[in-house]
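Case study: Nucleobase:cation symporter-1, NCS1 family.
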Amino acid sequence: MSDSSLGSTGNVVPDEFGIIHQELVGIDGDLYNEDQLPTAPIARTWNWVSISALWVGMVVCIPTYLLASYLIGAGMSWDQAVMTILLANAIVLIPMVLIGHAGTKYGIPFPVLLRSSFGPAGAKFPAVARGIVACGWFGIQTWVGGSAIYVILNTLMSGALAGDPLPILGINAGQFACFMAFWALHLYFIKNGTESIRWLETYAAPFLLAMGLALLAWAYVNAGGFGAMLSTPSQFAEGQPKEGQFWSVFWPSLTGMVGFWATLALNIPDFTRYAKSQKDQFMGQAVGLPIPMALFAFIASAVTSATVVIFGEPIWDPIVLAEKMGGMSIIIALFALIVATLTTNLAANVVAPAHGFSNLAPKSINLRTGGYITAAIGLVMFPWILVNHIIGWLIAYSALLGPIAGIMLADYYLLRKTKLNVEDLFKHNGIYSGSNGWNWAGVLALIIGILPNLPGFLAGVGLSGPASPLFATIYTYAWFVGLFVAGIAYLVLSKILNK
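Here is what the predicted structure looks like once written out:
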């Protein structure tokens, strides 16, 4: 913390939510608002349990539940799917903890940390790019939660909400109304800020874990065991339809699974800035991310295998499963789904874009206003269409987020040796200002990091013909390639451009 106290007046200033921040001297007024100033020591109240609860609240959601289904559908056995998910989250934990270090040490959010490697002006692009990805996920999660509400009400009302799709929207009026109701629920927490989100996560985490284990117990009892699926061999095994093809499926799947939380690996300082210590942020993330992800993937696999015995078919979608369970079970199960979706959405998909949009014009857009902008963009992205393209989207945006992570890590650890002058992050003419606010080493390294994945991306989204075998293979490892290429390019360009 010693570095961040340089230039401090010793005074503190509350933001719009009442959280206390340190006041700094000699900084430029148009580069900050109270939300972006370093978190004061008195406001650093999150211990490792709080951070673990935050992660459990984010991990337990319907898209996480469905991840195993994508992998098993691609030919993996349940244990191969669970191990792939565990490995991916162990990998993404590394940059998560490393980047989180800066948040805990200096109390600054993600867009302010970006200024070290991109400059005050240059940082706006990667911050907003991360924010737009979160807006897409915000919309998808809101659609999922709204669908749960729709199923509850439609079941209780004997199908009265069913109807023809509305023009342009492509969903019926009942579905749209439930989507809007769940969307509006987010506005309450956006209005009340980060501490209200922490409160929700802390109380929801044990409830969500209990609901997951209760679902597992229900499946085991009703199926008399977990059924045939857990004993079904991998399709890649000898004599199976996809014999010998495991690695060609594993690597893109691993990249996609890494991409699932690669978003949070960038903006994790938005949360670790409230951690009491580095030990708390490390332990909280190590306990809260990889193991709950693997546990939830196992629950999804086991419960789905049991549905083969109970209902005669595998049911991966927990909303459809809850509908088939009937009675009070549907209300309990779908209430849990709504809570799970809300906790994930608020922490993973509101805080980052709110900070990113706030960083565009700090004096005009505070964190609360940035949250409202996020909700509005998520609404107009037609998430009920976007949700059908999740895996391709995961790899596509990991090709963008990997390079940003590589640049941040190279800058903070290899170039700066974890030492930042916090006041200069808020100055137009400080040591991080580069050329008129642009650190061209960071900007050019980002472009260089994206380029190897560009042919694969264009082919993947249908904007070009098939990529050559070389570029198709590179795109398979999009996040990893982007991270290392951009990180190395940044270090080289920093030596050349920033003498």
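For the exam, be able to explain this: The CA atoms of residues 449 and 486 lie 4 Å apart.
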